[in-house]
Specification:
Sulfur-oxidizing protein SoxY, disordered N terminus, Immunoglobulin-like, alpha+beta
Length: 273
């Protein structure tokens, strides 16, 4: 057999084995979810093939500490239920529940995006809770590792100088713009400067682990109306960024946030309209 043909067959065999191994790893990854689910949702039924929720995430992450995900939840026309909560879970992370969002108003559809840390090959899950108590799940298997222990992008002194600073920007056609002109645009991006230390990162100088310190609460209101509140954990990335849909009313948007050290941060913005 010519050498070229043997080489092609060897490459094909290797590729087939790699695909098979990856598929087996992905299939076996459900074992973690089976043991995790009762701790988060008890014995409640979760529909995992729901057309109501779509989760988008990369198959292979470019940066395990900054994995972008987006979630869309849309109820069909005539459905009188509303979306009340959204829980983000990274199965294989040390603290799997990344964040839980609670929504105000009568939300029949919503979009939400953020960046997560992924510590090893894992399913990422988004579970929406409707007003009647039903749970609907979207899931994606993501290949990434080391996200929770990756070194912080800034040293601690630099990070603490800007901690709590906020930016609120509108999103239009995938581009960022001036949020004061958001009277007809229904998506905003909120970013909070914060190192969001996971407790698993090592100080590169002292070689000691940096204590966990992260944003664990956010509340966004439009006037007196709640847009969403969030309870967060160590799986949210450094400098948490949340892109969210809302119904613009022209009223002032106010953001309150807090971290695990008891710091409180706030910001506000008056959209046009």
């Amino acid at each position: 057999m010519p050498h070229r043909i043997r080489l092609l067959l060897a490459v094909a065999l290797f590729s087939a084995l790699a695909v098979s191994a990856a598929a087996a790893q992905e299939a076996g990854a459900d074992a973690t979810w089976t043991s995790l689910k009762p701790d988060v949702f008890g014995e409640r039924a979760i529909r995992d093939d729901s057309p109501l929720i779509q989760l988008t995430a990369p198959v292979r992450a470019e940066d395990a500490a900054l994995v972008p995900i987006s979630v869309e939840v849309a109820l069909p026309a005539g459905d009188t239920r509303t979306v009340k909560k959204l829980t983000l879970i990274v199965d294989e992370n040390p603290a799997p529940v990344a964040a839980t969002f609670t929504f105000g108003g009568e939300r029949h559809d919503l979009t939400l995006g953020t960046r997560l840390r992924v510590n090893s090959y894992s399913y990422i899950r988004a579970i929406a809770e409707l007003s009647d108590g039903e749970l609907h799940m979207g899931e994606r298997f993501v290949k990434a590792s080391g996200g929770c222990s990756a070194p912080a992008m800034k040293d601690e002194e630099a990070a603490l100088k800007s901690i709590g600073q906020m930016k609120l920007r509108l999103v239009k056609d995938g581009q960022m713009g001036d949020a004061t002109k958001a009277n007809r645009v229904s998506q905003l991006q909120l970013m909070i400067r914060h190192p969001n230390y996971s407790g698993l990162q090592m100080d590169q100088i002292t070689r000691l682990y940096i204590p966990a310190k992260f944003v664990d609460a956010i509340e966004v209101k439009q006037g007196d109306e709640l847009v969403f509140s969030m309870e967060g954990g160590i799986s949210l990335s450094e400098d948490p960024a949340i892109q969210f849909s809302y119904e613009p009313s022209g009223k002032e948007i106010h953001v309150d946030a807090a971290d695990t050290d008891g710091r409180r941060f706030e910001g506000e913005l008056k959209p046009a309209g």
